[in-house]
Amino acid sequence: MDTEKSSSSSFEDLTNAEDTKDIRKVAAEEAASGDGQKAEEEDAEEECDVLGNKQLIKRTIKKAPQDSFRRPVRGELVTVNFTGKLDNGTVVENELNFQCHVGDYEVVQGLDMVLPMLQVGEVSQVSVDSRFGYGSIGLKKEGESEYLVPPDANLTYEIELLDIKYEDFADLKSFEILRKYGTRKKERANFFYKRSEFTTAIHLYRRALDFLDNRDGDPESEFDKEDLELSNSDTQTLLEDRLIVYNNLAMTQIKIAAYDAALQSVEHVLRCQPNNSKALYRKGRILEGKADTQGAIKLLQKVATLEPENRAVQSDLARLFIKARREEHNEKEMYQKMLGQAKKMEQNTATRQKQPLVDNSKLKLLGYLMGTILIGVAGVAIYRYKY
Q: Polar residues bias: where (predicted)?
């Protein structure tokens, strides 16, 4: 066979040293290029655009150990370390061994959304757009006018997931645990209420109520034995905390005009404390929202009796009296208009009924005249014929 290779062959003649050198050089460059692409692909796997719009990006700094596969799910208790910084490097949050329940907004929303993506032992950097941080409101220092996080500021967090714990019914059969979790949810709900983030506040108030209860709901408990065995003082403390949460929940529901839900919340308070002035006042607000001004006045009058020095109640009561008079005046005008229209309709009906009577009398008169004429003509004809 000819030593020269066919042009259609897939093999190269590598006998020439210079050609071999060039090919090796090309191969080395391709290998280097391939390694670079592989490294880029690995880096790409370490970065995750969670929402696909660059507003929430997770980058893995330290991978979890190989034997760590579990990720937290909604409702589980996690322990984390995290540090939050502004774009200029200013540290605004720093927490060690911080515990929270996944999905309960106990950290900024961006971090809460990333928690289920972490594994125990993993360290990640999370870039959070202001939309999923502190938004256009920002975050001020407690009791100060200075901003800790300016409005519309992006944040960068470094977070390490230390532990995940699934809490079963046995873990919650403790007065201290129940009150600790319930109080934490309530305080976080108050935080969102002050920021006018009412939907999030309602969620957290409801979560607080889940814990501030002496009924654990354990399906494995014996019938009528599911309630926790608490002392009278502990039971009373949980009840008082629950009533505070129900009162706050009702006020938050009023803010979004969810009056039926707010009425149910406030009734929980009034069943236990019929003279709770806050609950009575909020029920009055609810009735006003449901267009029952007189009912609202009665409740606010009761509140004014319980708290005679409360100027806000006196002011609202005066406003409701004015509103009631205005409504009464408008109602009278409406009835007068309705009555006037009814009378006008009656007159029109009577006129239409009388009109045919006039026409009938004219016809009768014409009939009489024609009859008389005919009789006269007939009499004349008979007279002429006879004589």
A: 1-13
The total domain count for the chain is 1
In this prediction, residue 24 carries a pLDDT of 43
Q: What is the mean pLDDT of residues 369-375?
A: 72
In the predicted model, what is the mean pLDDT of residues 247-262?
97
User: Is residue 67 in a domain?
Assistant: yes
Side chain identity at residue 8, one-letter code = S
* Residue 13 is assigned to a structural domain of this protein: no
In tens, the pLDDT along 150-185 reads 999 999 999 999 999 999 877 888 899 999 999 999
The lowest-confidence range among 202-206, 264-268, 331-335, 383-387 is: 383-387
pLDDT of residue 318: 94
Give the residue numbers spanning the domain of 69: 45-167
pLDDT at residue number 11 = 33
In-domain check, residue 305: no
Q: Please give the structure tokens belonging to residue 227.
A: 């309630």
